[in-house]
User: Fold this.
Amino acid sequence: MERNKLEALVRANIRTLCPYSTARDEYQGPLGVFLDANESPYPTGYNRYPDPHQKALKEQLSAIKGLPVENIFLGNGSDEAIDLMFRVFCEPGRDNAVAIAPSYGMYAVAAAINDVEVRSVPLGEDFSLPAEALLGAADDRSKLLFLCSPNNPSGNAFDAEALLALVSRFPGIVVLDEAYADFSAKGSLRAKVLECPNLVVLQTLSKAYGLAGLRLGMAFADEYVIRLMSMVKYPYNINQATQELVSKVLTEPVGAKIEETVAQRGRIERALPAYGFVRRVYPSDANFLLVQVDDADALYAHLLADGIIVRNRTRVPGCAGCLRITVGLPSENDRLLQSLDRYEKGDIHR
Ligand code: PMP
Assistant:
C-alpha cells in the first residue's frame, strides 16, 4: 500500500483530533521548578508524572530492536495497542476487522468493546494461513486484518513470504502480533514496517523478557500510524515504575533463558507422544505446546488436582480435545511429566 492511502483508513474524528498536551512538553531543561501539573512537591520517588513520550525507554528499545524511535509505540501491554487499533481505525457499528481463528482472544474482545464486527476465518489444515479466504472475507469497510505469528493457541509461525503477500494485498491495516517471535527460528518482520505503511507489528516484554507483571507492549509501524496511536492513548500510559524497571531489565541478557525454554519445549514435545492418551502434539515456534488428547476435560481436571494449571482449549473451534501447555522451568516440566506418568498408569485425580 502507498503511504498516501493510509489517511483514508483513519476515523475522521481521530484524523482531526487535538490531543492532550502537557506543559512539561514545553520545557526540556534539567533543573526546572515544576509548578505546572499540580503534583505534590514532596519527593516519594513517584511524586512527578512519568514521561508521556517514554523517550529514554524508546531510545533503549530502538537500539535493541533496530528501528527508529519514530516507529515505536509503547503500550500498557500489547493489549493496549490492540485496543488502539480499533479506536484509531474503526468506526463503531460500521467498520469491521478480519482475523484468523483460532487466535488470541483479545482481538475479538477489543472489537466487541469498540462495537466492531470481527470476520473470523478458520485456519486451514494443520493451522495453515488461509490467505485467499482472509482476503475474500474483506470488503470496503474492512479496516484491520489480525494475524498472529507464532499463533496462539496453535503455536505455529507462518512463512514470511505468505505474511508479506497478505500485507501487500490487504486494502487496510495488517496487525501482525509477534508476542512469541523471540522463541521462533522464523524471527520477526518488524523491519518491514519501514517499507510497508499498512503493517503494524506487535511485540511484548511479557513473554521472553519475563516482564508480564510490568505491562509493556510495543507496536512497530509507519511513523504516521505511531503518531495516531500516541495521540489517542492515555497521556501517561506507561507508569514511572515500569519505565524505570524495564530500562534496568533491558540491560540484562535474555538469550540463555530463551534457549532453555526452546530446549525444554523440545523435551516435552519428544516426551508427549509416548503417552497412549496423546493423539497429537502440534509443532510449536512459541513457549507453549498445543496437545490433542483423548479426553481433554479429564486430563485438565487431573493436572489441576495435581496443582498443575494448563489452558483447556477443547471448546475453542478448531481445538477440540486440546490443552495448551506453557513451557515452564525444567523442574516444573519434571512435575508435569510425572503427573502425566500417573495419569497414564490410571492413577487419576478427579
Ligand atoms: N498477543 C498474544 C498472541 C498473546 O498471547 C498475549 C498474551 N497472552 C498478548 C498479545 C498480550 O500481551 P501483553 O501482556 O503484552 O498485553
Notes: The first helix runs from residue 12 to 15. Residues 77-79, 104, 148, 152, 177, 179, 204, 206, 212, 217 surround 4'-deoxy-4'-aminopyridoxal-5'-phosphate (CB under 6 Å). The chain has a mean pLDDT of 96. DSSP finds eleven helices and eleven strands in the chain.
